[in-house]
Amino acid sequence: MTPEALMGGFTAPPQHSSRAFRAALTALSRPGTIVTVEGGHGPAPLSPAAAILALTLLDGTTPVHLAGGHDAPALRDWLAFHTGAPVVGAEGAAFAIGTWAALQPIPRFAIGTAEYPDRAATLIIEMPALTATGPRLSGPGIDGTAQLSLPEAAAFRANRALFPLGFDCFLTCGSHLAGLPRSTIVEDI
Amino acid sequence: MTDQAYNFAYLDEQTKRMIRRAILKGVAVPGYQVPFASREMPMPYGWGTGGVQVTAACLTPEDTLKVIDQGADDTTNAVSIRKFFQRTAQVATTEATSEATVIQTRHRIPEAPLTKDQILVYQVPIPEPLRFLEPRETETRKMHSLEEYGLMHVKLYEDIARHGAIATSYAYPVKVEGRYVMDPSPIPKFDNPKLSNSPALQLFGAGREQRIYALPPFTHVVSLDFDDHPFEPSKAPHDCDLCGAGESYLDEVITDDQGGRMFVCSDTDFCRTRREEGHVGRLGEPQFSSKKIANSFEGICAPEEAAE
Ligand SMILES: [Zn+2]
Fold it and tell me: InterPro entries, from UniProt (chain A) (predicted)?
């Protein structure tokens, strides 16, 4: 284990994780809203926002999939030390972290079952940029419409068609994050 | 770290993570009941342990918490929960709906419109709206998955056949975004319209039954009804005897043993605020505006200030 693996955890876990959760809750319950989080970081290529989501939501009960460049020894060590989350293949993952390209093909991820739609994966998508532009969002959490710089619209439209099944997403960039639950209707503009 | 015997907001971090994950899945599937592993809390189940756990998972040190029980801030239940979080999370508390960032409630939605900066946490005794039709969890889960809600409509229609109207006046079932039928907890059906399209996030916690569900802001919520018997939110046909409000939900209060009675707002903060603004009901007395004075001392408006 590298010394880097020990760095970047919350210095005051209860307080830091409470603020980070509230930011994540705001993001997921108000799709299109971009929030800022702080208090933690992990090894590259993990963004601070993705690191903070991991510190807040992951533990030994949440199998995580690391896609593409995120499946790096330093990041595995960091996750193991700070969260204890087992690293698994895409099919068995409760959480997945990676760029949109690396997470493909998306249909590998759990979408829940008819009786337990909550048993679905949460994708943490690392983005090169995150702005309130691009595809139009509507649905629960949105007063009218919003816009978010999603990597594409088609995959999220297909996911919405599965409702109440489907995966849920956080989009992360630097210290910023946004949420996209399966309930959001996504349209190209 | 401090040397206190309990963690921030009482629950340990592992438990809060589990509850937080359940809350996020609840938000992603509005109206669907997410199972969670409810923890023992230092209070009996009837005291809203589900709501307390959801509140504990949501609170940050910067929050201002309000706790109401049937609309009142000063019942034993509300005071106990407020003190519990004052002590375990060191959060600020308030009785003013407009000042709160998190509001835990039992059986009411505040009269004052909620804002996008607020979370309303409901204490839920029985989260399953189909439970009285079908006691088996495996069956109700199947019914929800297949959107098999016909029996629910039959039950409501039997009410109409028997009483000429739908007799259910509390925990009146709703349909969320055209998909899940949901129990809004035992709020009066008068409050049901406020569930829909609220700017606030609404979270529901059932401790004994171990379920969490959610209504994100601006979610479409419809009370079940029929074309020939549309849903009607109802209240006592009176104005508040203290503040004169004609649009608030009222409690009937027996005032003496001669059969005297009065109707007062169930939402005590709403009633006090109106009286401080100079509104006077049939039996009320004019109030001096103590609120502005209290605010200048950045204190919480104490109930005594508005007392008779
Ligand atoms: Zn009143």
Answer: PhnH-like_sp, Phosphonate_metab_PhnH
Residue B124, chain A, CB below 8 Å: the answer is no
What tokens does B49 get? 């342990």
What residue ranges do the domains of chain A occupy?
A: 3-187
- What separation in Å is there between the alpha carbon of B274 and the centre of ligand 1? 7
pLDDT in tens, B5-25: 689 999 999 999 999 999 999
Q: Which residues of B touch A141 (CB under 8 A)?
A: 27, 216-219
Which residue reads 């995966």 in tokens? A167
Q: What are the structural domain ranges in chain B? A: 3-223, 250-307
Q: How far is A155 from chain B (nearest CA, A)?
A: 17
What 3-state DSSP class applies to B292?
helix
* Interface contact B17-A118, CB threshold 8 A: no
Beta strands in chain A (DSSP E): 35-36, 64-66, 95-99, 122-126, 136-138, 146-147, 168-173, 176-180, 185-187
Superfamily of segment(s) B3-223: Bacterial phosphonate metabolism protein PhnH (3.40.50.11310)
ipTM, 2 dp: 0.98
Instruction: Dump pLDDT digits (tens) for B151-208.
Output: 888 888 888 888 888 888 899 999 999 999 999 999 999 999 999 999 999 999 999 9
From B118's Cα to the closest Cα of chain A, the distance in A is 10
CATH fold label, A3-187 = Rossmann fold (3.40.50)
Active site residues of B: 31, 240, 243, 265, 271
Picking from B193, B184, B181, the residue whose alpha carbon sits closest to that of residue B234 is: B193
Which CA distances in Å does B115 have to A26, B185, B200, B212, B273? 13, 21, 5, 22, 18
Question: Which of A117, A143, A181 is closest, CB to CB, to B27?
Answer: A181
* B24 interaction partners in chain A (CB closer than 8 Å): 24-25, 28, 57, 122, 168
Tell me how far apart the alpha carbons of residues B100 and B102 are, in angstroms, rounded to a whole number: 6
Q: Rounded CA gap, B156 and B291, in Å?
A: 45
**∠ Cα B218 B220 B224 (to 5°):** 150
